[in-house]
């Protein structure tokens, strides 16, 4: 081994050698003949080369140039090991060296390469390495890797050649080549490691690096093995390849949307319009950007989607909790047409919905329009504008897809969504961009003799889409808050939706930010309380995703929905990927994607309410589907202790079960409850007994039994006053409501004050269901002092104790037992008051804040570890960490 030193070299060149004994001479000479005003030290590393000539050449050069060349020998360890060997020698023996250049033995440099690259580092102290364009000799090719460095682009391609000039501080931070990574493209791995640590590169236009290109080489082997190498790279750099990390880079480096706000004369470059680091440009600056990307597309990036949307429209969508969804759905609709528009319609007072069309729509009323940058550039360079100008005419040539978002009629920001000028604003922008003086440069002349080397720069949205099978990624970035998604098939304020609403309110009290996701329905009920609780409401609106049905296989008698395995999961995962917690409420087929969300870092929860029954009375449904996908859920959250025991008995580990016992579905002031209970106690024995049914009108609720009881009280002329309140939704559409029910049916009530008054009116609540979970109606009634008379099904006996605070009836004797109970209460008001007082006393003080406490604690503990694992600060760093 020969070790020589020279006086204070500023730059070190490491040349690893294995098998290029003859070509090595050209590499060494290209360094020795460099023109520079600083000293350069060459480190020759013989990596156990089997050719004697290699040793001879290295010895001769080290002897001839003892002040410039150091010769090191080592056993063969591979290219990365050899590079590290030379780098470590520089770190240990040459303290004056500020940067290291890596030159493979079969490549070479033009005469001023190292002086130019060192000057680039001097001029840009924030750059940690300078990388070249690729000019090949042998097989002559030239590739342009110019433009701003992007870790997002680097994550999908080998952007930086090993022949780069790298600051010493990178190696001193512990970044070295991975000697175990021998599949190829070791330089790709090295620079990704450096970038993940906060270091950044910079391209030098005329570096002077010359790459020897031969038909058969290590690079050719790597190209053949590209799928294997890329898979290994994605595994090793898993955190970087996560969608949330890629989207953080997308926001800072290659924004997805250029949102043009005509009323402000500005353009926003962003992924998430509510995140930090939104770049704001004037329209003139945007014009320069767009024409640069037309002229040299591989070097200059412009957002792949142009969205024309006035700022007040954006504000209105944000207030409505649909801004991110609108952008996502507009982008998603580009599957059907190159231009998409968004219209705003009006739904009922407490309704919300979405209608989308893959073809012609009401363009004239659009409040937003989106066009892909590829088509936009074609429009800008077209000799005529006739084709695009037809957008403003009744019949247009460009295919247009449309979305109509219907918001509640009383929505308080509706005035901000009444600017239907998106099409005209877009056409005005097109003509302004076409009038730009930059357009003259976009001719058939080629402005760069190199070929574009960074093809992904023109379609950066595809990088994060790889995680979702090509589907659009919901444009929501992590902001440090805990975001929890409540996933439902529909929202009509049945028991499940009420549980979801109250769990959301409970978790919100613990600092979580709730969001609603509707899987199947495209028209939903949204009360003011719902809108005030959930930060956003989002529709999957994917016709191929069905919550139930179509499956070929079953699990313990429950058919596995086809959409658990065959649906467009990419779209659903793309919508939900950014959540910290995902909770399924009767979500059916969404169980099939929970494992994917879990792998992306979300905590997955299954909220369980009851087992449905088949037409033959066999238990089935969401409980069994949850068991089939048990591995995909972190937490099972049954609504009762009975259901929790059932889950455990069916194989769910006890540690995964967190009981969230149902509580009343709405809040009532304590003073009101006390006052109404006093009024109830003061009723006379001669007053009619007030009996109430409150709930959905379907077969599960035992409507035929209820009708028989009503008929029985009338037949025996009991002193009873009935009220039946509910929605006439019958599972079997061909089965009419019993006449006894239809005759006294009142419309459903969702308002809390109205529900409180109804319960204050009642003495007895009747619920003769065939199967149940833990009904909210019973809990609300008992809190108000109403005595429940209910069938002993599900977890009803968990709160109702026969003869103590209510009446429990065996299902097979429900009608007779209910008639007996009503008869007894009508005649024995003292017994009624005693049961009422016990029910009232026992249900006071228990609310959803208490019910959700254990789940909130479990999520908080899990969230801390998950967020620590998923920190994105290193990916978004613009300067290196302290050394």
The general outline is elongated
In percent terms, what proportion of residues is strand?
A: 15-25%
**Rg calc:** 35 Å
The overall pLDDT average reads: 91
Continuous helix count = 33
Largest sheet: 9 strands, mixed
Largest sheet strand order: 14-13-12-15-18-16-19-17-23
Q: List segments where confidence is low: pLDDT < 50 over at least 5 consecutive residues.
A: 1-6, 863-883
Distance, first to last CA: 32 Å
Helix content: 25-40%
Could you tell me the number of beta strands? Answer: 37
Oligomeric assembly: single chain
Structural category is: alpha/beta
Quick structural gist:
The chain is of the alpha/beta class and 883 residues long. 36% of the residues lie in helices and 19% in strands. The protein is built from 33 helices and 37 strands.
Topology record:
Layout: E1 11-17, H1 24-32, E2 40-47, H2 52-64, E3 69-74, H3 79-93, E4 99-102, E5 108-109, H4 113-123, E6 129-132, E7 134-138, E8 141-144, H5 151-154, E9 165-167, H6 168-172, H7 186-196, E10 201-204, E11 209-213, H8 218-224, H9 226-236, H10 238-241, H11 243-253, E12 257-261, E13 266-270, E14 279-282, H12 283-295, E15 305-309, H13 311-319, H14 323-332, E16 339-346, E17 351-357, E18 368-372, H15 373-381, H16 386-389, E19 400-407, H17 422-434, E20 451-452, H18 461-465, E21 483-488, H19 495-509, E22 513-518, E23 523-525, H20 528-533, E24 536-539, E25 554-555, E26 558-559, H21 569-576, E27 581-585, H22 591-599, E28 603-608, E29 612-613, E30 619-620, H23 622-628, E31 635-638, H24 641-649, H25 670-681, E32 689-694, H26 703-715, E33 720-725, H27 739-742, E34 745-746, H28 752-761, E35 764-767, H29 776-783, E36 787-791, E37 807-809, H30 814-827, H31 829-842, H32 848-851, H33 853-869
Parallel strand pairs: 1-2, 1-4, 2-3, 6-10, 7-11, 8-20, 12-15, 16-19, 21-22, 21-27, 22-24, 27-28, 28-31, 32-33, 32-35, 33-34, 35-36, 36-37
Antiparallel strand pairs: 4-9, 5-11, 6-9, 7-8, 12-13, 13-14, 15-18, 16-18, 17-19, 17-23, 25-26, 29-30
Helix pairs in contact: 15-17, 21-22, 26-30, 30-31
